[in-house]
Write a structure and sequence with these properties.
The complex is a heterodimer of chains A (about 110) and B (about 110). Helices cover about 0% and strands about 55% of the residues of chain A. Chain A is mainly β and about 110 residues long. In chain A, strands 2, 4, 5, 9, 10 and 11 form a six-stranded mixed sheet that branches. Chain A has a five-stranded antiparallel sheet with strand order 1-3-8-7-6, with no helix packed on it. Chain A is built from no helices and eleven strands. Chain B has about 110 residues and is mostly beta strands. Helix content of chain B is about 0%, strand content about 55%. In chain B, strand 4 and strand 5 form a beta hairpin. Chain B is globular. Classes of the chains: A mainly beta (about 110), B mainly beta (about 110).
Chain lengths: ~110, ~110
């Protein structure tokens, strides 16, 4: 079956760095997305990776290893507003998104 | 610019009552449209998607239905709600010409069935 695994919850300190991991098993693969979702709000797009390697976008970076079925989202210089859930989603061979349950990130001062 | 709007934002309904959630997209043509449900602590569950007017694909058998009467309008309905229908419902669109494109979500509708 198809599956996405990511930690349920993580805690980090303001100003620090945090890495949120995601492993996926899908029927075929056409890329991996990361979305940010603040409590009670809709998800918003953060990144898309289809090739191996690191993509940097400001304080956020996303990494993909297709051979390992693994991705991570790296958040630097954490701010209180980064407290949110981070959703990992893989695009399968039918271009359907398979979603993880999300990682709730708690930022402490 | 493109916008997506869904309503109502919040509703509380008794078991057995009907449901209608509406979603509209502006600023784009022939979008792919989606209805997702998000239960607490669970991933987004795709309920329906549509690639064109009157074309609806159902991902999960349930007592919900969807319709697309116009190009940029997507409606989620139920004739009789169940307790298990409670959740956060999200409408989304993507560019039909871009299979790896990002999803743009509406504000969400929180449904509580009592």
């Amino acid at each position: 079956g198809q599956n996405i695994d990511q930690p349920t919850e993580m805690t980090a300190t303001e100003g620090a760095i945090v890495q949120i991991n995601c492993t996926y098993q899908t029927s075929g693969f056409n890329g991996l997305f990361w979305y940010q979702q603040h409590a009670g709000e809709a998800p918003t797009f953060l990144s898309y990776n289809v090739l191996d390697g690191l993509e940097e976008k400001g304080r956020f970076s996303s990494f993909l290893s297709r051979s390992k079925g693994y991705s991570y989202l790296l958040l630097k210089e954490l701010q209180m507003k980064d407290s949110a859930s981070y959703l990992c989603a893989a695009l399968d061979s039918n271009y359907q998104l398979i979603w993880g349950a999300g990682t709730k990130l708690i930022i402490k001062p | 610019s493109q916008t997506i709007h869904q309503w109502p934002a919040t509703l509380v309904q008794p078991v057995g009552s009907p449901l209608s959630l509406e979603c509209t997209v502006e600023g784009t043509s022939n979008p792919n449209l989606y209805w997702y449900r998000q239960a607490a602590g669970r991933g987004l569950q795709l309920l329906f998607y549509s690639v064109g007017i009157g074309q609806i694909s159902s991902e999960v058998p349930q007592n919900l239905s969807a319709s697309r009467p116009q190009d940029r309008q997507f409606i989620l309905s139920s004739k009789k709600l169940l307790l298990s229908d409670s959740g956060f419902y999200l409408c989304a669109w993507s560019d039909a010409g871009h299979q790896t494109g990002e999803l743009f979500f509406g504000e969400g509708s929180r449904l509580t069935v009592l």
